[in-house]
Amino acid sequence: MLEHILALLPQVIFDGLILGFVYAMVALGYTMVYGVLELINFAHSEIFMIGAVVGVEVFRYLAPHVGNGFLLLLIAVLLGGVVAGITAILVERFAYRPLRARGTTNRLVPLITAIGVSFILQDLVRLVEGLWHNEFFLRMRTVEDLEGSVELFGGAIFAQTKSFILMGVSILMLVGLTYLVNRTKLGVAIRAVAQDLHTASLMGIDPDRIISRTFLIGGSLGGVAGVLFALQYTTITPYVGFLPGIKAFTAAVLGGIGNIPGAMLGGLVLGQLENFFGTYLPILTSGNFGTEYKDVVAFLILIFILLVRPQGLLGQVVREKV
Amino acid sequence: MSTLSLLLSLAYLGLVFLAPGALSNLFGLLALGATAFLRLSPTWRTLNLALLTLAFTLGLVRSGNTLGLIGLVGILVALTTLPRIPGGIRVLLGLAILLLSVPMAGFANTFIFELGIQIGIYAAMALGLNVVVGMAGLLDLGYAAFFAVGAYTWAIFGSEQAKNFMQGNFPLPGEYMYLFMGIAIVTTALTGLLIGLPALRLRGDYLAIVTLGLGEVVRILANNLDHPINFTNGPQGITPVQRPPIEWFRELMGSLGVRLDQTTDYQLFFYLLVLLMIGLVVLANVNLANSRFGRAWVAIREDEVAARSMGIPLLPTKLLAFMTGAAFSGVMGVIFAAQRTFVSPESFTLLASITILGMVILGGMGSIPGAILGAAALTILNLDVLKTFSEFVRTSLPQIPSQVDPAKYERLVFGLILVLMMIFRPQGLIPEKRHKAEMEEA
Fold this sequence. Notes:
Number of helices of chain A: 12
Number of domains of chain A: 1
CATH class of chain A: Mainly Alpha
Strand content of chain B: under 5%
Strand order of the largest sheet of chain A: 1-4
Mean pLDDT of chain B: 87
Helix content of chain A: over 70%
Distance between the termini of chain A: 56 Å
Radius of gyration of chain B: 22 Å
Low-confidence stretches of chain B: none
Helix content of chain B: over 70%
CATH architecture of chain A: Orthogonal Bundle
Order of helices and strands of chain B: HHHHHHHHHHHHHHHHHH
Radius of gyration of chain A: 20 Å
Oligomer: heterodimer
Order of helices and strands of chain A: HHHHEHEEHHHHEHHH
Shape of chain A: globular
Number of strands of chain A: 4
Largest sheet of chain A: 2 strands, antiparallel
Largest interface: A-B, 57 and 52 residues
């Protein structure tokens, strides 16, 4: 059995890496919004899903016309990012901003709103797809350029072109975001609002605008992640965002919520752990406990982290102010 | 004003005789609104309510249109919330609605019984969640998990399922259901303890996502624990689950002059059982709200740090709220399993948790009549209005794609309710006093 486990190991790590990058990209959206508003934006998983659906539609309609698979993917990624980003801005504008304008202090109110928005988006997409194609399960069209594969390390790893693209794009986005937040004026403003919204507004920063931008950035990253997710895992439904969303949030907490490098680290760690358990649990228990339990593992990790190290791997302890 | 509202009520009564159905019932709801919100003297208002009760009952019996049921629930809510109605009349009218109107309508149309039972089960659960969310301010997004634990507690032992892992004479006879209602209180409270002990140490918004996750875990377990040992029979679910024998109930009803047939006997029985449970749950709710614990919960909801410095132990107090809510849900789970004789993981999804949350939010967090009204409104919406609308769409617009069936869009409806309520009326339709003050002050 040990040989069997070892033989599978490179592939498990490679697949875990793909999953981890997806989580990392989605986790960034959670962590940025949490940073500025202290709100768990449940609707972010639907922003991710919308990106995936846009990806499917772009491939459905443009694949016959655009010969080059890479160009096609570029269009899909850009369009997915834009649509998802705009949706995120609209959600902020029409659902969260009215609550802030009223100055509600009750913490449950924005959370319940976020869940409601998430449900609305799921069914709106379902409605649109229902009217458009009468489909619930959406399949990503395969394009030859992206399906190419290589075998690494003497066949120990089976890797596809699209997986490399996914990793490359996510690393690019992570680097770009780090630059944006740390080196640009917008980044300074975002950090200022995250630190203290009221004081920031005294320094000539318009918090509403910065919050809107934050949703745009987080949403676009989520949308791009969605397109790449659809490319990688091929079958999408309007309800597909829920589990990756919740796990990406787990990843954000794991790395330290509000912390951007933490979200990346958390995503990668969670991807590895989940894939590890998903593959080896059935082998180790000789089939008694199946792959289905990998979701349970993610939740148990979340609880464990919150209990043992609530500030996450890279986060700092924040004392609650009275 | 008085004459206007009386005229409206009388007009509705007349309409019920001439043309019972959805339109006349809508008119009845209008009349009820006039009675509740216009400035009326208590005598006129009482008279109106009595007239409307009669009219809604007749409307239900004659047409079976379920808007009439909403009207009756509305009258119940009016009876409990409006000021200066004589106490005797409140009780009398309330009992007449619950014990005469609904059963009469149920005999005319068994679907009304089914709705009444479902409303009752959900109302009791909404009252349980009300303790957790409304009183203690703990957002629990995995509440259906406790419902599942309760339902499976009886389903496993009240069917042949238990033979898979233990010796004994299964299914247990139906009488054991009553015992298992007690056992379910223990198992769900323990589950609440197990989930709450780690989750309740966390700050408010982390609690939401952790309970959401744990709710999923319970569903995943129910779905997959058919191997290596078959506890839950996986996605197929467990059937048939035993019901309690009701010979004594038939005889009792026979001696009261009520003749029951094969379908209505169990429906009437479960309807009355659910009513009894709601009565107990409301009683527990009221007493809890005014007890030391209830005050401690509200204190924690308002300000954790202040509550702690006043000497309230946070974790035990929160745990108690969590376990109380869980126990309510567990008991109703047992009844749910017995009434439907079938249990599967499908009934305990995130959607179910959010539905119950929606009931609490719609009625008003912390408000007891609110939770019942919310349960009635959302259950009727879900089981009847959306389905009727679907039928309508399918027959009148056959070219609409099958994916666009309105009955499939519960999420959209619940999502809209949550968001619109939070933006425009966060205190709910029938606000609890303290909550109302808090929301307005903010």
